[in-house]
Amino acid sequence: MISTATRAKYLITIPRIIRDYLALKPAQQRKQSPQQYLEQQENQLARALTLQHQNEGVTGIIGSTMKEGESVARLPSSVYWVALRTWGIINTQASLNQFLQSVKPPESSLGSSLPDEADDADGVSTDSRVHLDRYDPQWIEDVHITLTESEAVFLSDKLQNGPINSLPSQFELSGLLKEVLDEDLAGFAQLAVWVAAKPDLAQRIRDTVEMAYAFSELIYGAHLRFNIVVARNNQREDLLDQYESHWLDWRKVRQAGPEQVLQWLAATKITLQGRTGAFLMEWSERLANNASVVVLDALVEKQALGNKKERSILKKRLPDNYRWIGMSRLDFRWAQVRTILRDIQEGLPC
Predict the structure, then answer these.
(1) Is 70 exceeded by the pLDDT of residue 114?
(2) What is the pLDDT of residue 124?
(3) Where is this region: Disordered (predicted)?
(4) Is residue 320, in this structure, part of any structural domain at all?
(5) I need a surface site. Which of 89, 191, 207, 236 has the fewest CB within 10 A?
């Protein structure tokens, strides 16, 4: 949903910028498109936040490293748009570009609407679809990356009224938000174990987290086995012993079986490209049938060579200081979501 440079503040600032544009006089709007205005203001926001928090060691400010004359590489609006739609902060099903194209000066709005596939707001003014805790035309003059109490209460309310099958919404509704943030749940694996032990959470949510964890472990196991092969090829006995030990521990953990793989892909509407889908199915089947590590290693080697051929890591001698190749466990952006939830929690009144 969101990049590693993550703070809840952007769920507030993007709607503020859009509302600022809507507040411009029609003549000003005709001189500058919504897209141009949004990009200009997001770059100004990056500079304002960087200056405001200079030398404070604050993290999560998008564009904090850009130099004079540079622009933000990936604008917050493109990073946070799905979240803004999901939480009803901006009421639309349109993409960011579709939404901005629907914003017209009043004189030219007659007959304009979102494209057919996103006509969720016909007859509804744009400003009524962009929600704020309160309108403040001077907000950027003293902007901070932390939330004000008003902003935190606003976002907390949006979470409570968000999608019923959303984990953050369930934390709010179940009164578990403070507890989940107080626990040492930095990784998704720790979160999954914690969620499984919380009967207050909806069963569907617990099942979804369990399935996500099992899918993550399935993929991690393939990469673990691949790294064992690489360590063996490079005579790295230290890594080989370490990863083989990890493998023995990993085999005790529940992984997604073939049916669960299909269920997860269907539920998440993920389409795996090329050989990946077939590999995951065969990998899960071999594990379910307790195939030997010889068979499993042959399978991951075949996949690696099929993907990269002569460019494969398996065909190369690696530096003596290499540690791990490829992916580790999937995090499902939990670290980013956790940061946003913490921002909201810290902004709420005691």
Answers:
(1) no
(2) 58
(3) 107-127
(4) no
(5) 207
Write down how long the chain is: 350
The pLDDT value given to residue 266 = 87
From the CB of residue 316, how many other CB atoms can be counted at a distance below 10 Å? Answer: 13
DSSP structural state of residue 319: P
Q: Are residues 39 and 138 in the same domain?
A: yes
What is the rounded CA–CA span in Å between residue 230 and residue 239? 9
pLDDT digits over 291-334, tens only? 999 999 999 999 999 888 888 999 999 998 999 999 999 999 99
Angle subtended by helix axes 293-308 and 203-233, to nearest 10: 80
> Is residue 337 within a helix (H) or strand (E), and if so which, with residue range?
helix 334-347
- CB 192 within 8 Å of CB 212: yes
b/e code 128-151 from CB counts within 10 Å (16+ = b): ebbbbbeeeeebbeebebebbeeb
The pLDDT of residue 5: 59
Going by pLDDT thresholds of 50, 70 and 90, the confidence category of residue 3 is very low
What residues are paired with 130 via a beta bridge?
Answer: 90
